[in-house]
Amino acid sequence: MIPFIEDDFIESETSFRELGDLLKQEFGAPSVTTPLRHHHDFQNPGEAKDSTLLLMPAWDAGRDLGVKIVTVSPDNGKYNLPSIQGNYLYMDAHKGSVRAIFDAKALTAKRTAAVSAIAATFLAREDSDKLLVLGTGALARNLVLAHAEFQKLKKVYVWGRDLDKARKLVQSLTEIRDPKMEFLPFDMEAVSDFEKVLQQADIISTATLSESPLLKGDLLRPGQHLDLVGAYKKNMREADDRCIERSDVFLDTYQGGLKESGDIVIPLESGILSPSDVRADLFELCSGSHPGRVGEEEITLFKSVGHASEDLIAARYYFEIYERLQKNT
To answer: Are the beta carbons of 318 and 10 closer than 8 angstroms?
Structure first.
């Protein structure tokens, strides 16, 4: 029997510190081969927006391999379904047999949030203790928890287009009772107007599907760190041109970061940004070839679009936990 590892297992067994450290090791000394992902937009009759199919393969020769199959349907909220759905096929790279199938939702959210958290260790100020999150979905929740495990947070603001959803997210976070999350609780607040608290935040994480910029660069204060993880398509943006102009820009990878999201693609096309302006990617940060933040007043911007090696490392992490627990039962 091929085990199907569900989101509930991933939720209950996550240590962002452990997962983040494994991802940091891989970015610092890569062992995983990662072809360019397949990204296919397709018409969705009856909906106002196209849907997307993503295929993300990766392998560590002789050890393991995997491929994530994801669909993105932006209008799914009206059906009470997640906009992002998918599965991850985790395999033995030596014999080619399937080891496990994962529900990809939690796997993706956990590895994405962990990547943002390790990037912030290089790019946010060391005294950062206030976080503003834009978005109310599963990724927003994980961004709070991941950043909290790496930063000594004292205050978290949560904003969403639906204030009630922001309040529910805050409530769910305050109700967590997990001994692995010893950093909880801290002060959390749902806000109706994020611009009123924008300058108080040290780290600003965005996890939305916005097609027009939410963050205005003229409102930023020196020393802030922007963590942009939403806006996955070329016509989507979470930060305006002034954010790009005022920030030192970093990417998770050059391979995807320069091509996939409007936060980078649109400024590149308009001439606001050139590829040479990008300071470094996460491979360079984790390997020590770039120091990351170099000044207290510097505004840093990290754009993450995801990388298939992250999925493979995360799948390996959870599968090893699964195997260990199975042997002990």
So the answer is: yes
On whether the CB atoms of residues 215 and 238 are closer than 8 A, the answer is yes
Q: Taking the domains of the chain in order of start, what are their residue ranges?
A: 4-107+309-327, 109-306
User: CA-CA distance, 171 to 299, in Å (whole number)?
Assistant: 31
**Peptide bond preceding 185 in cis form (omega within 30 of 0):** yes
CATH entry, 109-306, from 3.30.230.10, 3.40.50.720, 2.60.120.1440, 2.30.42.10: 3.40.50.720
- Rg (the chain; Cα; Å): 19
Tell me the pTM. Answer: 0.91
Q: Is the pLDDT of residue 144 over 80?
A: yes
> Which residue in this structure is represented by tokens 């603001």?
157
Q: Which two tokens stand for residue 46?
A: 């009856």
Residue 182 — pLDDT band, cuts 50, 70, 90? low
User: What's the CA angle centered on 131, arms 257 and 193, to 5 degrees?
Assistant: 95
DSSP 102-156: EEHHHHHHHHHHHHHHHHHHHHS-TT--EEEEE--SHHHHHHHHHHHHHS--SEE
Find, among 123, 149, 135, the residue nearest to 20 by Cα.
Answer: 149
Is 283 within 8 Å of 253 (Cβ atoms)? yes
**Measured between alpha carbons, how far is residue 8 from residues 178, 282, 293 in Å?**
14, 29, 36
Task: Quickly name the fold that domain 4-107+309-327 has.
Answer: ornithine cyclodeaminase, domain 1 (3.30.1780)
What are the two backbone dihedrals, phi and then psi, of residue 39, each rounded to the nearest 5 degrees?
-130, 110
